[in-house]
Structure formats: structure tokens, C-alpha cells
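We emphasize that the prediction below concerns an isolated chain of 272 residues; any contacts that depend on oligomerization or on bound cofactors are therefore not represented. The input was used exactly as deposited, without trimming of termini.
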Amino acid sequence: MAAPALPDPNSQQKPEEEAGGRMSFFEHLVDLRKRLVNSLLGIGIGMVAGLAVSPYFIDYIVKPMQAALRAHQMDDKLYYTSPAGYVGLIITLGLYLGIVIAMPWVLYQIWQFVAPGLYKHERSAVAGFIIPSMILFLAGIAFGYFIVLPTMLGFLIGMGTTGPVKPLISINEYFDLILIVLIGLGIIFELPVVIFILSVFNIVTPKFLIKNFRYAMLIITVLAAFAAPTPDATTMLIFMAALVLLYVIGIIVSYFVVRKKRARAIAGGEAQ
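Result of the prediction step, given as a C-alpha cell string:
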């Protein structure tokens, strides 16, 4: 009687290569519906909370403009030009705040839907950039509020003091302006995350990023010239400095990604 064949240890799937739970197509649809409903409920609750606190946030929103007006010896009042202008601002701001409040919950729902179909090392990679991406987005907003807005508004208001025309600032138009600036900077600050993803898929390496640094500087200069909300040199230099710092951080992130992948490859080769 022949002895049963022993399984080849090299043919067994490694624990880190094992995928999560297996679902049928119908189960995926049911889970997708569940995650969508949970996300919408979270956004709804977040918007209710955002509407409750939005009147208090308006005070913080107008501070950079008020400081710029006072610096040029002007009245620091902002105005709304329609009867429902202020109420509309409160509602709009509340909706945006609600999305921000609910975003961790929404990202968690997305993660719960995607994670079962990923391998263990893929889950680690995805989870590794979700939280940093949120932190970088908020860092971009903070950078815009505390550094870019004061410089930009000071330049814009200063231009208006040289002629016979005086500014009458609409709170709604001002809100639209800073919304574009802050969200744009939040997106720009995701550059290290983009480099992280490209490094995971072997599209870029630290050596490639360092070798092409001069070309990156050229692209950064052009991007800063177009992305800067005002044409003054100070704002453009601030944008350039931020982008260069983000690029350097991206190089460091890429280095650690490549080093970890090489260590995993060496460990896999030794195990065989």
C-alpha cells in the first residue's frame, strides 16, 4: 500500500498571500448596499452636526480677511448681498463640515468592502496610506489657512488701496475663493501618497526621483505659477517651497517602500 504523498511545503500558499473572505457575486452586492447605506447614514449624521457648528466656524473663516482689511486701515466687516445669503452660507458650510466629519466613517466602510478581496500584504499597503492621506489633506488645509491666505489676501487688499476703488467684500464670494484655495492645497498635499502608490507598483523608485529632481523642480515651478491664487512672488515661493518639501517626503516614502519590498523578496527567496 503506497504511503500518502506529503504536501510540498513550497507549494503551499504563504499566510501573507492568502486572501480574505471569499464572497459570491450576490454577497458582494449585498455587502456593497450595506456599505453605501452606512456611508450615507454617516454623512447625514455628520451634516446635522456640521449645521449645528457651522455658525461658529464662520468666525474662523473670516479672520484672515478681517486681518488683511485691518492691516490696511479698512473696515473689517464682510457683507452678504442677498436676503438669504448668510443662511445659504451657513447651510453650505454645514454640508462641507458634515462630509469632513463623516469621512473617517466613510473610509472605514470602503475599507470593509475592499479588504476581504485583498491579500494580506495588499491590505497592509492600503491601510498604510489611508490615515496618512487624511493627515496630509488636513495639513494642506492648515497650510492654506495659516500661511497662504494671509499672504494672498494681504496682496489682494493691498492692490485695492492704491486707487480710488475700495473693496466691499461679499462673504459668499470670499467663501468660494477660500474653498478653492484650501481644497486645492489639500489635494496638492497628497503628493507623497501618490508617490507611495507609484512606488508600490514599481512605477517610480527613489533613484528615479532623485535623478529627475531638476525636471521635478521645473514642473513644480510651472505648477506653482499656475496654482498660486495671486501673481505675487511671495505666494509663488511659498507654493514652491511646500511642493519641494512634499517631493522630498515622497522620496523618503519611496525609499522605505522599496526597502520593504526588497526585504520581503529576500525573505521569500530564503524560505524556498
